[in-house]
Write a structure and sequence with these properties.
By secondary structure, this protein is mainly beta. 0% of the residues lie in helices and 46% in strands. The strands form two sheets. The protein has a five-stranded antiparallel beta sheet, with no helix packed on it. It has a four-stranded antiparallel beta sheet with strand order 3-8-5-6, with no helix packed on it.
Length: 150
């Protein structure tokens, strides 16, 4: 009771944007009232990188692109990149930019995060999503596909 859960299936085959697979995410709210996942660069044995290793230099890229859809439509999710700056860690992201919270459609929609003018010399947190119980009191299921820097 009170425990939140995230179920992530990164090989989901039901109607991906670009076959054969996409990512299916289900979030059920719990005591923390929010959850999210960072796609991190330079992950090694620990399975994460909150600043223990340097980021990737993506200088010259101007946008982050991805496709998303909600199970029913109306799901509220924040999307962002960068922002990893853990206290006491040697490395950090050189930028942070959020698209803000968006209301997902139940059809595949292209999203773009404009990175023009951002310092992309050290990217650890390449892509992130966050969902809250406040915006999704009963939880949500949504799908991601074709995430890339351009």
């Amino acid at each position: 009771p009170g425990a939140q859960t995230i179920e992530l299936n990164d090989e989901y085959t039901g109607e991906p944007h670009s076959p054969p697979t996409c990512v299916k995410v289900t979030y059920r709210p719990g005591g923390k009232r929010w959850a999210g996942i960072y796609a991190q660069y330079n992950v090694k044995d620990e399975g994460h990188n909150w600043g223990i290793r340097p980021g990737k230099d993506l200088t010259g890229y101007t946008k982050l692109v991805w496709y998303a859809k909600g199970e029913n439509g109306g799901e509220m999710v924040e999307f962002k990149a960068g922002g990893i700056d853990a206290s006491g860690m040697r490395y950090k992201d050189s930028f942070e930019k959020s698209l803000g919270t968006v209301r997902l459609e139940n059809t595949w929609t292209r999203y773009e995060l404009d990175l023009t003018g951002q310092d992309l010399s050290s990217v650890i947190g390449a892509f992130c999503w966050v969902a809250t119980a406040r915006s999704n009191p009963d939880g949500l299921t949504f799908y991601l596909d074709d995430i890339f820097y351009e």
